[in-house]
Amino acid sequence: MHRSDYAEKQLRIMQQIDEDHTLTQLASAWLNLAVGGSKIQEAYLIFQDLSEKYPMTGLILNGKAVCCIHMGNFDEAETLLLEALNKDAKDPETLANFVVCSLHIGKSSSHYLRERGGA
To answer: If you average pLDDT over residues 93-100, what whole number do you get?
Structure first.
């Protein structure tokens, strides 16, 4: 729908109920990613905080990686995405993000993904 205005309204409602709830934090990070610009750093910090509170999941790793891609930190993004691929080599979000990251750093992702069984 691409309605960040509607998402922001829903996020405010969630924050009124429980600003520190994990789902509220995830929604905030995703909205910040959608808005972009200076909000990317805020999204990264939320994903970083979640990674310190909970075991690293593909969702958290992908969130951090996408933030890194937006900030131009492709080496860190690649590291995070490789970790996510180690957890689930067939996760479509991880695979898509890995291909995008690989294109930005000029590496071929196809050989690596074929070896891992992801492509």
So the answer is: 95
